[in-house]
Amino acid sequence: MVFFCVSIHIGAQKKDAPPLNLEDYILIKNGDTLMINLEEVSILPRLKFKSSMDARYYYWFRSKVYKAYPYARLASVRLDSLNARLGRLKKKSKRRKYTRRAQKYLEGEFTDQLKKMTKTEGRILIKLIHRQTGRTAFENIKELRSGWKAFWYNTTANLFKLSLKSEYHPESVNEDYLIEDVLQRAFIDENLDPQGSKLDFDFPKIAAERKGNIDVEEYKKMFAKKKKKKKRKKKRN
């Protein structure tokens, strides 16, 4: 499907910026500061941060999930619709014609928006494709196109250190846990339109085991590394 291909080719064109101000990720009204999502009454435990800096990174990451999720949700709807229509078409020629038309439509629908995505948002999107469809982006492409083209797209994605074969495992991968945590709290607060996962995992149980503890060390290290690289570059110039 062209959608998945396009998302990777352009996913690294906009750079991620570190969360500089906590105010960017909280609500301040009439002099009162309200930490979003910290006091919700739900089946999920209260979020626990080691520091205000960790809170900044969590809400920075949340904004990335908020941006990527609608595209993954829409891709799932479109893919289900495509598969349902293909199931009713018996002739191969009609199936090929409809698939090409659907690919063209998806490319036009998503390209401009996806050009604005950062590398982090692109990575989240790939993982959400697996969450929403039950198959990796690579598997979706392989089914709709040839295995060779799926391999080529995956190779291209790896140039940006993104893999179309990336899977979604909130029970064992910290970033995936953070994504699902953001989604579930957004669904509860009605900030995002809910769509269930086609994967089998029990997030309330997973969240209970984590006890609301938020780990954002990988993002802090990522930006620290970028900062050092930028300093070295300045010294050379």
Number of strands: 2
Provide the domain count.
1
* Unreliable residue stretches: 1-12
- Topology order in helix (H) and strand (E) letters: HEEHHHHHHHH
Question: What fraction of residues sit in β-strands?
Answer: under 5%
Helix content estimate? 55-70%
Brief summary of the model shown:
By secondary structure, the protein is mainly alpha-helical. It is 62% helix and 3% strand.
Please characterize this protein's 3D structure.
With 237 residues, this protein is mostly helical. It has one domain. The chain has 9 helices and 2 strands; from the N terminus they run αββαααααααα. It has helices spanning 2-9, 52-88, 92-114, 119-133, 137-144, 147-158, 174-188, 203-210, 217-236; strands at residues 27-29, 32-34. The chain has a two-stranded antiparallel ribbon. A hairpin with a 2-residue loop joins β1 and β2. α1 (2-9) packs parallel to α3 (92-114), α2 crosses α7 (174-188) and α5 packs antiparallel against α6 (147-158). The longest helix has 37 residues, at 52-88. The chain is globular and about 60 Å long. It starts with a helix and ends with a helix. Residues 1-12 have low confidence and may be disordered.
